[in-house]
Amino acid sequence: MRRRLVGTDVVSHEISDTPPLEAPLRNLERSFIDEFVRSRGYDPLKLEDLPESVRNTLLSEASVYASAKLAEVESRAHYLHEIHDGRAGSE
């Protein structure tokens, strides 16, 4: 995964065959990353001020956190669809 600073945002690029996240999930992912960064006592808008090694470690951990949270959201959504579909099929 490559990261680069664009303005005040750190942009991650991952080479993959999967399409990029759609806007709502991208925004949610950004929120989870910001949440993680704040929970570690850092300001998401000032990541460029951190030493590169600290910033890279922090963003790597934030990425794992955001991925886990997105998986949780997707799992819950899938579960709700199953419940809804099951209820619709039994009527």
The percentage of residues in β strands lies in 5-15%
Q: What are the low-pLDDT stretches, counting only 5+ consecutive residues below 50?
A: none
Topology, number of strands: 2
Instruction: Give the number of domains.
Output: 1
Count of discrete alpha- or pi-helical segments spanning 4 or more residues: 2
Percent helix range: 55-70%
Radius of gyration: 17 Å
The dominant shape is elongated
Order of secondary-structure elements: EEHH
Placed side by side, the strands forming the largest sheet appear as 1-2
Summarize the biggest pleated sheet: 2 strands, antiparallel
What do the pLDDT scores average to?
79
State the secondary-structure class.
mainly alpha
What does this structure look like?
- The chain contains 2 helices and 2 strands, in the order E-E-H-H.
- With 91 residues, it is mainly alpha-helical.
- The protein has one domain.
- The protein has a two-stranded antiparallel ribbon with strand order 1-2.
- The chain is elongated, with a radius of gyration of 17 Å.
Give a quick set of tags describing it.
mainly alpha, 2 strands, two-stranded antiparallel sheet, single chain, 91 residues, elongated, 60% helix, 2 helices
Layout of SSEs?
Elements: E1 2-6, E2 9-13, H1 23-39, H2 52-89
Antiparallel strand pairs: 1-2
Quickly describe the structure.
By secondary structure, this protein is mainly α. It is built from two helices and two strands; from the N terminus they run ββαα. β1 and β2 form a beta hairpin.
